[in-house]
Amino acid sequence: MLRWILGGREAQGAVEKSPTLFIGEEQPKNPFTELQVLKGHFDIVRFLVQIDDSRFASAGDDGLVLVWNVETGERLMELRGHSQQITAMVAWSLINADTSHTSIITASSDRSLSLWDPDTGNRVQTISDLQSSVKCLLVLEHLDLWLSGGNELCVWNQDFKLLCKREVHSDAAITAMVQLPKMHVAAAVDKEIVIYKLAVSSKLEVSVQPFRQLTDHHDSIRVLINVNDGLFASGSHVGELIIWDAVNWTIQAYEHILWEEPHCDGQAEIRFVSQKQSDMSIHHLASNGEVVILAAVGSGLYVYNIHSRNVVAYRKMAHDSNVLHTMLLSDGQLMSCSEDGSVRMWEMEPLPLPAEPASPGFFGLWSFGRSSKQTCPPVKKVPEVPILKSLELTGDLIGHSGAIQMFLSFGEKGLVTCSTDHLVILWKDGERQSRLRSLAVFQKLEENQGLC
């Protein structure tokens, strides 16, 4: 276990210096002052999934799935079977009677699908005769079904039996899927969102049919997420964020983030003319399940309020490179990781209020020989605009030497990150770990009280 003293660092010009702290002010604190490096992969680690309160799995380009204990960092299982990189991974909790068991489903470039038991390390089921590799997975737990998406959409049961299949009539493949109400599924296919309808007959036969195509995006859709039971969101390669009604699939809000400061006329569109188009891509979306969406756009972060339909906080250069994964925390806090190899913690702070225009003062009472009529047009009332907030850096986790692909939070038990440097790192609250070690020592002393 390594112990690091980490605080808010400057990001080589990307993050402004914090104001000077005076005596009595509380300095922002980063609790993750201990890290444990978990080795076992020998290629890029791209995926992390939580199995239960104390276990998680990691997978990537080496085709391995490793199961870890988040409290000790112990490697519990090594799941071998795929011959090429893993392209998707998801946890599936099956509830039978009063028992619940979580399995892992993986897809690989070797055109196979596997069902793993993380308790035993066994590969319970496998399908290896797919026509193409699967790019995304979606579990429908209430139906005991799961879907795989790629060049075709397939519906499977818990025994890995193919129930139905639907070809994607497009040059592009399905890259993301979300579950919608009333037996519908939304799938991202290039610039379109295809709504599929699932049907289950009285004989338990399942069918899937394309129901509607949503063509409002102007470029490839990169991200698709559920916001809550009534809304879902999509983000495109050119910075388009669209909020959709999950029942009738109408647009509830539209934001085109183009990286420029908002104008004084209250327009919500944000532009930054020197930014390249490739840097405007929405790489990740996160939601708090209510009205707030966090968008990772290029190397920046934008917080969007669905009710007010505007950006309420932003940081144009949150990282030195593209932001790949984000998470909303409580109390206006959030977290992001990037290709620059860092994980950063942020807090929303109100921006300074704009200065009021100066009054004419004493000389405004005199006409100096001119007509007493007003020669300049009256000052127009500035339209009311939503109060913007900035994102202030409160913590910076530096431990990886490569791009961080994603992270996984276990609350007070720690944070897990994975990277192109082949490593998984477990970050811990240093004060909590110190208390736990002290408690363990006292307990040991009590057990050996009678020993000399």
From TrEMBL:
Gene name of this polypeptide: WDR41
GO CC annotations, alphabetized: lysosomal membrane
UniProt keyword terms in alphabetical order: Repeat, WD repeat
Keyword Repeat in annotation: yes
Phylogenetic lineage: Eukaryota, Metazoa, Chordata, Craniata, Vertebrata
Species, as recorded: Denticeps clupeoides
One of the GO BP terms on file: regulation of autophagy
Keyword Thylakoid: no
One Pfam family hit: Beta-prop_WDR41
Ranges occupied by WD repeats: 38-78, 104-126
InterPro entries documented for this protein: WD40/YVTN_repeat-like_dom_sf, WD40_PAC1, WD40_repeat_CS, WD40_repeat_dom_sf, WD40_rpt, WDR41
Stated name of the protein: WD repeat-containing protein 41
